[in-house]
Amino acid sequence: MRALATFGTGEGAAARVRTATPDKVRPGLSWLLCGLSERAMTVEPTDPEAADGPTRPVLTSTHLLVPDNAAPVGAASSVAARDHAAVAHAAAHLLYSPAAQPVASLKPMGLAVVSAIEDARVERVLAASYPGVRRWFRPFVPSLPDPADLSFSALMQRLCRLLMDVTLRDDNHWVNKGRDLFEAQAAIDLADIAAFRRLGSLLANDLGQMRVRFNPLQYVVPVAYRDDNSYLWDYGDAAEPPPALALGSQGAAPQPRETTPGDAQAASDEDTELGRYLYPEWDYRLARSRPDWCTVIERLPGWRAEAPLLAGLRQPRLALPRSRRLDRARRLRRQWEGDDIDLNAAIEVMIDRRLDLAPDARFFQRPGSQPGVCSTLVLLDLSASANDPAQDGATVLDLEKRAAALLVGAVAGSGDRIAVHGFCSDTRAAVHYYRLLDAGAAPVDAALGRIAAARARYSTRLGAALRHAGELALRMPGERRALIVVTDGAPSDIDVHDPRYLVDDAREAVLALRRGGLRVQCVALDGRAEPQLRAMFGYRGYRIVLNAAALPAALAHGYGRATLG
Q1: How many CB atoms lie within 10 A of CB 78?
Q2: φ/ψ (deg, to 5) at 38
Q3: Is the terminal CB of the chain with fewer CB neighbours within 10 Å at N or C?
Q4: How many Cβ atoms from other residues are within 10 Å of residue 134's Cβ?
């Protein structure tokens, strides 16, 4: 008798077949798999001499291929124990997992996380029906990796540990979040496959926000007996799963990443580091500031913009209200009313009376007003979320840069000073602060080029950036000093998991700057962040723009409020 084993699933997957002879079939394991899965299945080993043979079990609709060349995981495990666990795991997939699910929009990292969640789900369902299989799985609970290792493989290993053994604990926020979400959904309905897939996609999205790198050619499923998950997925019309999705390619050497034009441009641009500054950060849980907690790295970026980008910033100027102030040094004479007597006019009145002439009754004087000199710093949020599309093919970052350039053009030549800076953060150890246009500098091509070529990346640690921007703004000359923040949402950073923490820190920074005489305003592009904006800037300290095209007018309005009072 000859049997066929198929590698890969799905209508478009190529059928890779091999011949199995009766002496290679493992009857005991085959009967066990047939009994558990309630279908005709065959268990056989892979060819140990095949150089490109899989190092993980491979499950198809008719066969389970168990590699002979896979080494045991630990002293308590053995090849026989691994094979029993592999059979039970394969039966769980055959019973409770739909085969050849479309990959759809899942990216490679999402595919790996969703597969791991599905592995844990089907084992939990099988153990509920056959409690004895737990003793087959238990010896293969992964060991705890180095706590300092925050790579994708280490995080997945820690998550698999907690999902396999509920008595274990971990101190990583992402791992605990994954365990809590899994257990909550398991308590509701273990059979809801779509809910667990959404859960896995959410966890993968969090890893993307944490900027955890994933190389599918290096990733190894952390549990030794689990298959390569090719049974679960349909890769579409491709003859073979794309390399980025072929999670069964375990242990392959990493491939060098191709250099893209954007990478070459980034490599050619050199930032000039101007200094590093330490700032405190408010911790609401301790009700005090942590001294020297954040490091702000001030840079003069080497970004350069092409001519089309510069041309897009040269648009008609905005009409801005002029700030005027009362000046006691300037006296308006010969007024109908006032708070003092104009002595020269009063003398002329007495002379006219002696000459029997009609005197001029305008013998008062009062203080006059003159244009006030204001200094404003516009702080742009350059976090990765600014790369989100806005409208007409433009991103949020494009609209921020265009609005800032329009405001610069409107203020230039008026006697007021304006500066444009930007920031993003990569944990508290690296809050990147970019000086795009300094106060008093003419908006020449070099400065406008830095604004036009500004890039968005990393996260939004707003409090530290506000403190540094405030220090710079308070040094600017002028009778009124203002700071205008342009952001697309609430603050966040990858080393902070409490959503209130950075909001409270930003509020403390704003209050301290206002006590120092700086007027702080915010223009935001996300209406969902209104509660956080109100907490940080107060009821009259922010303005939300729902239509991104209205951002320049909103920025001008914020400038007017900040400089006119």
Answers
A1: 13
A2: 60, 40
A3: N
A4: 15
